[in-house]
Prior knowledge:
The protein has ten helices and nine strands. With 267 residues, the protein is an alpha/beta fold.
Amino acid sequence: MRIQPHAAQKSFTFAPMQLHFTSMGQGQPLLILHGLLGASDNWQTIGKMLSERFAVYLIDQRNHGRSPHSQEFNYRLLTEDLAEFIAVHKIEKPVLLGHSMGGKTVMNFALSRPATPDKIIVADIMPKEYQPRHQLVFDGLQAIALPALQSRKEADEILSRYVAAAAERQFLLKNLTHGDKGYQWRMNLKSLAENFPAVHEGLVYSGKFSGPSLFAIGAKSDYCLAGDEKIAAQYFPQASWKTFDAGHWVHAEKPTELVQCIMDFAL
């Protein structure tokens, strides 16, 4: 189901959610949002490097990491979660950085509240609708029967039937935890699986953000194609572009280069 613009979505309701986060450093606030099936932990290394110049907040979005779970999941909720976080923590003029799904949250937030961010940084995602591309991933995760699971190795073997790349499986299985009740998903797999088509939607807010905007693009990624910069410029007229010799996971493949790029842009 397509998510309609805010003015047409009269039934939209929002309940405040206390997002889990880690903070480090001092200086101008810099908030980092991970992508789908990721978590704030994925950005620990980059966060530590950036904390030399910024007050960094690594945030788990709803249904991810250690943040609360919700049956509902879409970009309007993620945007309002971010707005609530900024208000509760009394954060002024932050730099907002988001990767993939997190980048869509950042873009939606900047359009809905253009006076709040100082600058935004969007890592390898565009303000457009995408064809669904994660069905096999969710099929693989749901194929792992947690009550009977004996080891991470077993989980990896099951997931390998759906996801060929070992590095991608390792990333996904970071969501798997083990405790007194056996293996559990830290993320809300049920809600994410039911709502993941909404992650591929275009922007749900209209308007423009005229502040400085940086798009950090992986040259080997298919998330950003020739001509997409024209789409982005419609929403972000002050956009600049930096291309990295990387795929979709720019922050994992080129962390030092990305940090330097962020420093050059944001300071």
